[in-house]
Design a protein that fits this description.
Strand order of the largest sheet: 7-6-8-9-11-10-15
Number of strands: 17
Shape: globular
Oligomer: single chain
Radius of gyration: 27 Å
Length: about 625
């Protein structure tokens, strides 16, 4: 790739693969990091991309690629949204404008996208178990590649990461773990481990214990001890493994904390640590949004900002009212009415619309960090003692707590409500984040009742019903916007009762939530076509379904969920049990993973948008005007 002589990125222009970094001197690495950050800002300014985390991890990524030999050596990124610099250094710079667009690059690392992407990710806390598996495979096969995993302090709060770390220490396989400590996941980090990290950096003995630290480390590893004499600024970061260090207690060598933006020093350290026997944690302290003043000042907003001016940071705030806003407003008002209401979330305060709730009801709000299983079981404990907890969680993340929903909540029919955000196709984040399985996996659990509100008013009505009745409830709603409703709006609903929204008994479309919008558009102006707001999937409205099965010529079910075991399956199961004979066409997400694109594009591809429904209606004999 040739660039103009006056290019603003002369070093980056010469890098087509990680091997090209080896031609640079260590003194050139800071400039390369800055060029990468400038390019990341330019790419992300179009909006909808992960900015602050990628800026913060740039120096770590440059150092890793400078020292290791990818793809032979395996570099793993937890979550992967911080890996934009990695993508640019591994031959994908020219494709960066396509990131998260249909047919373009994934927003995360993806094995099928590049040989340099060691794992496919999107959910947190998986890198360490993967790294362990790769190290075990290497040793079992008699190979000699290096394994390095980059994990943030937020992801380290996940039980899977901590369990893997415990096993890593026990098995003592050679690997490097870079702990990227920026005090953030998407929101601020929480929990005891985060407090330990912060406290560690202000310990007087820690700051002044250079000599004692070197002596202690020398007893563990002479190569590590040699680091002590190289840079006094680093030596105080090596401390006695017999102290209160939880990593040492697990059997993992610990080095740090060190400056995560001193790329030269990082490269020097990594060269010496990566080949040490056993596992080593290099604790680096970074700044989310590094190099961009406005992103450093507000890393939560700039985690995934909308379109902005790179020079000034100016942007136009969204005036849209999201489903997350609708839930946040409703549960905040609900908590003001009922002191038993308590909201639990796994590190999703901003994403789930809970900022105002957390301020209005700080004593009835619990953020457990990236630990979905803990969120659900903590809610179960609350319910056992008389509270009425609401678990605010994304559909894709609730997958991780299926057993807790079943074992800890449902068996005893506890009063826990699940507010399931991002249900259905989410669009640009792709297969790892699409929430298209919750109807299927929750429908299989006895006693869990499922609702799909069509708007903010129905969402409020469902929350109200769940508060007033016993047992577990799950209310799913999509990513996107809805119309706001006035405070104090609490419609009275009967759970399990559907609503006829368009008359017609020739062919009747059954749909709830996002799919209802498509159904109404498809049926508009078509004589004989009825539409039902099938807002409850469990239980079904059995009385209406019996009537429809006897009066309609055919039924069409539409859902923003996999066709396997979802709403359509529930309808077919009921009709079979009742020995009711009526043709049924089941429309939903096909039994395959859906790649990133706009939600509308995926819905069209999956065959559940208005045009696809009209095509099915025509196949069923409905007179559908051409071109409509």
């Amino acid at each position: 790739m040739e660039r103009a002589a006056d290019s603003l990125t002369p070093l980056l222009d010469g890098i087509q693969a990680p091997a090209d970094l080896k031609r640079l001197t260590r003194e050139q690495l800071p400039l390369l990091s800055q060029e990468l950050r400038d390019e990341i800002v330019r790419v992300c300014s179009v909006g909808g991309l992960h900015l602050a985390s990628s800026l913060g991890a740039t120096d770590v990524i440059v150092a890793l690629h400078y020292v290791l030999n990818s793809p032979r050596d395996r570099i793993l990124f937890d979550v992967g949204h911080q890996a934009y610099a990695h993508k640019m250094l591994t031959g994908r710079r020219e494709q960066m404008p396509t990131i998260k667009k249909e047919g373009g690059l994934s927003g995360f690392t993806k094995v099928s996208e590049s040989e340099h992407d060691a794992i496919t990710v999107g959910h947190a806390s998986t890198s360490l178990a993967n790294a362990l598996g790769m190290a075990v495979a290497r040793d079992a096969l008699g190979q000699d590649y290096r394994v390095a995993a980059v994990i943030g302090d937020g992801a380290l709060t996940g039980g899977m990461a901590l369990a893997a770390l415990n096993t890593i220490g026990d098995m003592n396989r050679r690997m490097l773990i870079v702990l990227n400590d920026n005090e953030m996941s998407i929101s601020e980090n929480v929990g005891g481990l985060n407090k330990f990290m912060r406290g560690l950096q202000v310990q007087k003995w820690f700051q002044e214990g250079e000599g004692a630290g070197k002596k202690a480390v020398e007893a563990v590893s002479k190569p590590l001890a040699s680091l002590m004499s190289r840079a006094k600024s680093s030596t105080r970061h090596f401390f006695d493994p017999a102290s209160v260090n939880p990593f040492a207690a697990m059997g993992v060598r610990y080095v740090g904390p060190v400056d995560g933006h001193d790329v030269q020093e990082l490269a020097w350290l990594m060269e010496r640590l990566v080949d040490l026997d056993g596992p080593t944690i290099l604790h680096v302290v970074t700044k989310k949004g590094k190099g961009l003043s406005y992103a450093e000042a507000d890393p939560i907003y700039w985690h995934g900002p909308g379109k902005f001016d790179p020079a000034t940071g100016d942007f136009s705030p969204s005036k849209a009212y999201s489903w997350s806003n609708a839930f946040g407003d409703a549960v905040t008002e609900l908590a003001a009415q009922d002191p038993r209401t308590f909201v639990v979330t796994p590190a999703m305060r901003e994403g789930s619309g809970l900022v105002e709730y957390s301020r209005a009801h700080p004593n009835r709000y619990l953020d457990v960090g990236i630990a979905e299983e803990v969120a659900v079981t903590a809610a179960a404990g609350m319910a056992l003692q008389g509270l009425r907890p609401v678990v605010a969680i994304y559909s894709t993340f609730l997958q991780r707590a299926y057993d807790q929903v079943l074992h800890d909540v449902a068996i005893e029919n506890l009063n826990v409500t699940f507010a399931i955000d991002r249900a259905g196709i989410v669009g640009a984040d792709g297969a790892t984040h699409n929430g298209v399985f919750d109807l299927s996996y929750l429908r299989s659990i006895p006693g869990v009742r499922l609702g799909l509100p069509r708007d903010a008013a129905e969402l409020r009505g469902m929350l109200k019903y769940a508060r007033e009745h016993d047992g577990p409830f799950a209310i799913r709603y999509p990513r996107g916007n809805t119309a706001p409703v006035a405070a104090g709006t609490w419609p009275t609903l009967t759970w399990g009762e559907w609503e006829r929204v368009q008359g017609g008994d020739e062919v009747v479309i059954l749909a709830g939530g996002k799919a209802l919008e498509y159904a109404e558009k498809a049926a508009a102006g078509l004589s004989g076509v009825g539409v039902v707001n099938a807002r409850f999937v469990k239980p079904l409205d059995e009385a209406m379904l019996r009537t429809l099965a006897r009066t309609a010529r055919a039924l069409v079910t539409v859902e923003d969920n996999t066709v396997v075991g979802g709403f359509g399956s529930a309808v077919l199961e009921f009709l079979n049990a009742e020995s009711l004979q009526v043709p049924v066409r089941v429309l939903g997400i096909p039994d395959e993973f859906q790649e990133h694109a706009t939600a509308e594009s995926v819905h069209a591809r999956a065959g559940i948008d208005a045009q696809a429904i009209r095509t099915v209606l025509a196949e069923l004999g409905v007179d559908v005007p051409l071109g409509v």
